[in-house]
Amino acid sequence: MIRAPILFLHVLIIATCGLVYELLAGTLASYVLGDSITQFSLIIGIYLFALGAGAWVSGFIDREIARRFVEVEFAVALLGGVSAPLLFLTFARLSYFQVILYLLVFLIGALVGLELPLLMRILKDTLDFKELVARVLTFDYIGALVAALLFPLFLVPKLGLVRTSLVFGILNAAVGLWGTWLLRPLMKGDVTVLRVKGAVVVVLLVIGVIKADRLTTLFEEDLFFPDTIVYSRSSPYQRIVVTRGRGGFQLLLNSNLQFNSVDEYRYHEALVHPAMSLNGSPRRVLVLGGGDGLALREIFRYPGVESVTLVDLDPDMTRLSERFPPLAELNNHAFSDPRLTVINQDAFIWMEEPAEPFDVVIIDFPDPNTFALGKLYTTRFYKLLRQRLTADAAVAIQSTSPLLARKSFWCIMRTLEAAGFYVKPYQVAVPSFGVWGYGLASAKPFDIPSRLMPGLRFLDDQSMAAMFVLPTDLGPVETEVNRLDNQILVHYYESEWKRFE
User: Fold this and answer.
1) Which of 55, 58, 78, 295 has the most C-beta neighbours closer than 10 Å?
2) CATH number of domain containing 73
3) Domain range holding 40?
4) Looking at 364, 460, 461, 485, which residue is catalytic?
5) 364 flagged as catalytic
6) Using one digit for the tens of pLDDT, what is the confidence trace for 73-86?
């Protein structure tokens, strides 16, 4: 006798595993190819189409339905389980990675789409049609919800992409093996060979899980990082990697370079000191982003600073100095300064909370390559920021490259102006980044600061004045203002940087 309630658990697991595999593919695609909006849209579309294709193919299976169902389960387990390692490997080795990506998505979707109709046919003699359809679809959609919740909140932060893929492959294969007992009355002949196949799949995937960390490191070094990885961690928000070369070490978030220890002082001196000099005597300073502590190092050069508040979403980023001592040395142990308060919260949400105004704000967010980051560059955010400022406050914001992403740069400047700021753009050459742009802003008209504190490695009075002279090829271009309802900056950014991939 086939126990229908237990088989509905199969539906739940099938749906959960299937969507996890597709979320993995979408994440990996955006991770290695960029353009996350397009990649996720394509992958979800292909997956849904493949579900229909698999359901259509199921109509051609007339015999040994229970055995075919278990075999498909093993196929999904193997293909889905190795999907993340396979995609990493093919990206590193093959020029036609996208063909492999979309083919893999289609095959997994087709196999998942094949499973559910087969299971419904197995259960058709146990339940009436109305109850059968209602229950199967209910558990199918519940499985999708489980996957959508687990993937960002637990799986990627705790297991990582490669291990998540392999663990869910094992889960799929284990359910398939379980099915050889549950469905034994419907299977003709011996099932030993079928069980051996399932056991082999499980063993292979278990070996993969054991070697997952080593695989991830090898893939990342082969894919993105010519230098040796000396620290890596997957947080709920991003992949944090530190590499070391002959010249120093580099921090990368989701494979995007954040700084190189050899020349980061150019970037951070240019980011911090114009704003600090413009205000003249800052006492309360706010840093948004900047979890590496390097902007803090520059701020704490000013003895008149009484308090600094740093708001960074990711606690793993603000704890990186503790876990990687060379960074603590580089930022001069800024996180140990008693004047510092660290707040791990979304800056957009935190900005809506009441607080005392600040004399200087340093904004060091990552580039606006997603909508989650793009909202931090909108008129809404900058208007909230204005409410947090003293009358003479100065704001400095990193604004991507005015040479390579010219429209993105000027979109940020125009958005600041639309929010009521007076803005003076400037730029500096950072060898690891090339020409990099910033904006200096205030709620009232101001002149470019002319006096700097002495003793900096890069900036002096003359070089600071030169930063505010923009060559013709960095000059203004027409752009739209970045608002919450259009997020035009993200589109500008993706289209401009895609040319250099």
Assistant:
1) 295
2) 1.20.1250
3) 4-221
4) 364
5) yes
6) 899 899 988 888 88
